Amino acid sequence: MLKQIALCAILLLPLTVHAQEPKKNHSAGNLNWSVQASWSVPAKPIDVAQSLDNKKVFILTADAKVYIFSPEGVQLGVVPVEPNITAIDIAARGETLYLVNGKTNTYSAIDISFNQEIDIVGAPVRGKVDAPVTLVVFSDFECPWCGKLEPVLAELLAQNQDKLRIIFKHLPLPMHPYAEPAALAAIAAQKQGKFWEMHDALFQTTNWSANTIDEAAVRIGLDMEKFRADLANPEVQAQLTKDRSDAMTADVNATPSIFINSRPVKDRALPSLQKMVTEALGAAGGAK
Cβ of 66: how many Cβ atoms within 10 Å? Predict the structure, then answer.
């Protein structure tokens, strides 16, 4: 019913954007309404769906396409579909598009994702710094799934020497009490050129305690006086804040989250990761 109401609303809206005009309130009896947005659609709309987070609007049109818009009417992309598709629906965050073909009486599900340009300036790099394929991982040292991913990434890097670089971005999650101190400690260790040593030591931790981070710092041979001074350095907190902001910009809210040459990764199994690296190499002109 809500989809039908929304579709009717889109079909009734004027096709010209009035961005500079204030939203006009209307009333009839006990009912009040105002048009929040109005923009043109490139073809006749047939059905519409909107992601639960209100970040994407999907409009099925009579020219056998699904146009994807931002709530402001900015076209984000177009997905060609079979003729005679009569209805669409989407997963909650717009990551899967569901189609119904009224002629063939078939149902289809299509994976949807958008490339994300992620700022990697200042982030630690493992592998050849100018490798043609870049894997960015948003991770949390206390996250068990992140820990399980580490051997997979190590194997992937070993299989693609000189072709792949891994960029680490911090996203400590609120439910992990030691994750943020661990992230700050790793950034402080980076200032001594020992980020990856701290990274490895923290991911080897099985029982976290108040002493875990200092013990790891001593074990990898950090200058403890400088380490503690760097932990209090506003630059360290600023780097963590930047990584969190970059995660939000890239629509990342869970760990581990991976991107290969800006493309989001959904299957973290080694064969699937290798397939994406191979495809990225092909797009970049192959290994040199």
Answer: 24
Share of the chain above pLDDT 90, in %: 74
Tell me which long-range contacts 59-63 makes (C-beta under 8 A, separation of at least 24): 59/10, 60/85, 60/87, 60/88, 60/99
Give one DSSP letter per residue of the chain, joined into a string: -HHHHHHHHHHHS-SS--TTSPPPEEEETTEEEE-------SS-EEEEEE-TTSS-EEEEETTTEEEEE-TTS-EEEEEE--TTEEEEEE-TTS-EEEEEETTTTEEEEEE---------TT--EEE-TT-SEEEEEEE-TT-HHHHHHHHHHHHHHHHTTTTEEEEEEE---TT-TTHHHHHHHHHHHHTTT-HHHHHHHHHT-SS--TTHHHHHHHHTT--HHHHHHHHT-HHHHHHHHHHHHHHHHTT--SSSEEEETTEE----SHHHHHHHHHHHHHHTTS--
Question: Which amino acid, one-letter code, is at 202?
Answer: L
The mean per-residue pLDDT over the stretch 39-65 comes to: 92
* Residue 166 bridge partners (DSSP): 126, 135
Say yes or no to pLDDT of 7 above 70.
no
Cα gap 66→132, rounded to integer Å: 33
